[in-house]
Amino acid sequence: MPGETILIADDSAEIRDALADYLKSLGYRVQVAADGRKATALIDSHPFDLVITDMQMPFADGLGVLQAAKHRDADMPVIILTGHPTVESAIGALHEGAYSYLLKPVESLDELGFVVEKALAHRHLTLENRRLMEELRVINSSLAQRVAQQTEQLREAYERLKSLDQMKAQFVSVSSHELRTPLAQMFITADLVQAQLDRGSVMVAKQYLAELVAQGQRLQRLIDNLLDFSAMDRNEFELEKGECGLIEVVRATLDLWRLRIDKKRLQLSVQLPERDIVLTADMARLQHALGQLLDNAIKFTPTGGRMAVGVAGPTPPPWTQPLPSAFAVVAVMDSGPGIPFDKQQAIFQAFTQMDMSDSRRFGGLGMGLAIASRIVLAHGGRLTLKSDPGKGSTFAMWLPMRSGTAPLSRPR
Ligand SMILES: Nc1ncnc2c1ncn2[C@@H]1O[C@H](COP(=O)(O)OP(=O)(O)O)[C@@H](O)[C@H]1O
Ligand SMILES: [Mg+2]
Fold this sequence. Notes:
Layout: E1 5-9, H1 13-25, E2 29-33, H2 36-45, E3 50-54, H3 62-72, E4 78-82, H4 87-95, E5 100-103, H5 109-198, H6 202-233, E6 242-245, H7 246-263, E7 267-271, E8 275-281, H8 283-300, E9 306-315, E10 327-334, H9 368-378, E11 382-388, E12 392-400, E13 409-411
Parallel strand pairs: 1-2, 1-3, 3-4, 4-5, 7-9
Antiparallel strand pairs: 6-8, 8-13, 9-10, 10-12, 11-12
């Protein structure tokens, strides 16, 4: 292809000039060297597309030039010029990687032009081939990467599906009872409303209606918990962190449950620190977690029993491995039945309750502790349990205080 650069190495000026003139006339760019040493030096410093070299020259022969060319670029075609006495060594050069040889004196310049053109076309094809192979290799490896990636994604999806499947089985067994009971109650209450209206007792009907709404709200809480938990289980929840005073967390949550505490005539004591402990945390979620602990304490403690809620910190956590932060603790104690040692781990799993029988006395889906512990974990903390069976339970949320320095506190 015209425009390509060719080196001609020959110690005969006559041949050099004749070949150079001819190849230039075909549009090639040409450089010349009068001996082997100059030729190899040129090859080292220029990226030639083709080399034509005489076999016998001073300083370095055609084989030396051939080696220099192949060393520089294995795809650089080399054409050997040779007189009759050195035909054999020219053939040897072919074995060394020369593209072709031409006999001197070169009688047909057109033949030379033809060989040059063919050699360059061959070089092009080789380079193009190499480029395509490289492209193919890149495509292949990225394909292999994609396949590996997708296999991994598939495996993860499968694992998720498997654990969802287990959860589904547990959920179906527990929830069929837990969701249908309040719903059945609501239908009964709705019938009562209807009956009172038929009788014209609007006031009583209104009372039943309020009860109906309360039952609906309980059902809604169950369903909300369920959705919340499933989002957490898929790691699809984000904490909305802000300045979060633990005294406010306790007070606001207790306000929601005070009615039930009073209804069961539970003696409640609240122990708050002199100075509030302020964390960077998701206030609403911490209230939700604390709410689950209060719900349990109220639910499982017999009428007239005792309950305590306390906040403290900074305080060392009860586990042994050193953690880089001071901890605040929010604890809920009760004088309820306590939890047998062999159940103390399992109850933190979703849909797990101590009493899994159909006739169980306490409602609930068994998700409260699973949700609470996920919320605390998401804050970098832990939910712990200490319980003496028969005497009561203490659930504690351990929350890291702002890392490093002294705890942030503000006056109450
Ligand atoms: N304060 C407590 N006293 C006794 N048992 C408790 C207490 N808190 C939790 N449990 C046990 O742990 C189980 C799981 O609690 P939880 O996850 O909140 O689910 P649920 O309240 O829906 O049963 C309860 O069913 C109960 O057996
Ligand atoms: Mg509960």
